[in-house]
Design brief:
Shape: globular
Largest sheet: 8 strands, parallel, barrel
Distance between the termini: 11 Å
Number of strands: 8
Length: 265
């Protein structure tokens, strides 16, 4: 398995510093938070996109994902959501990223309404994703935090350019054990987001291995199943400014994941 981290953990950090941080701490890739307050987002032009690509390529670090904030199950008309998806897909294509992250965001709708809305929009965007060679990944999050929730959307879409991100915190908070989550997501699994927290009531990010999330069980399960994709550390520093700084934690986080992988093998 390859290791990455999300720039959610280093909010606002310029891309050259992100690249140096990844290369210097031994990570294979980076998930780029695509928000207007960050250096990389759909509003940047072709020249800036090319500079980002050149920087990552020179350091032999991969851009894993454009992590967008489109909510595919949100109430309202389809076209603004589809426009957002197309913009994220074009950005990922230009950066050479294989994935775009999207959220469900079903809000107060019924599960049936939210599922149908998300499936319709993802299905509509899938041909464009396929044309660009990018895969749309629905993260287990908010209204669809478990693997079973996400599978209700992905099953009806039934397109190879649409899949899932398994956020191990959200499936755990949703009361779903890792084996159940994996079984639901495996047919469409893009990659896995790892993290750690103190408890269900305190989700302030912690160094990997210092909290309650079942990371050992998840890695053992993935290894046993022969899954060889990416593990991405999503450290939510942007939402918890009081949390420790991610750069100082990255080397130990990498070592922890490597130990889990070695033990699982």
């Amino acid at each position: 398995m390859k290791l990455a981290f999300s720039t959610l953990g280093v909010p606002g950090m310029p891309m050259p510093e992100v690249v140096r941080l990844a290369a210097g701490s031994g990570y294979h890739g980076v998930e780029l938070r695509a928000h207007p307050e960050e250096p990389v987002h759909p509003g940047i032009g072709a020249d800036e996109r090319a500079r980002v690509v050149d920087g990552f390529r020179a350091a032999d670090v991969e851009i894993l994902t454009v992590a967008g904030y489109v909510r595919v199950a949100a109430a309202g008309p389809d076209e603004p959501v589809l426009t957002g998806l197309r913009e994220l897909l074009a950005l990922a294509h230009d950066l050479g990223a294989p994935y775009v992250r999207v959220f469900p965001g079903g809000g107060e709708q019924s599960a049936e309404e939210a599922d149908a809305t998300a499936a319709r929009r993802l299905g509509a965007a899938a041909p464009y994703a396929a044309e660009l060679g990018v895969r749309l990944l629905l993260e287990t999050h908010d209204s669809h935090r478990t693997g079973a929730d996400a599978a209700r959307v992905l099953g009806p879409v039934g397109h190879g350019s649409v899949g899932a991100i398994w956020d191990v915190m959200h499936t755990w908070l949703g009361g779903e054990d890792p084996a159940t989550s994996y079984a639901a997501l495996a047919p469409q699994l893009g990659y896995v987001q790892v993290k750690d927290i103190a408890s269900a009531d305190d989700t302030t990010p912690l160094p990997l291995g210092e909290g309650v999330l079942p990371l050992t069980e998840c890695v053992e399960l993935l290894s046993r199943e022969g899954w060889d994709g990416w593990l991405c550390w999503e450290y939510e520093k942007r939402w918890y400014p009081q949390a420790r700084e991610l750069p100082e934690l990255l080397p130990a986080g990498r070592e922890h994941l490597l130990r889990l992988l070695a033990d699982a093998a």
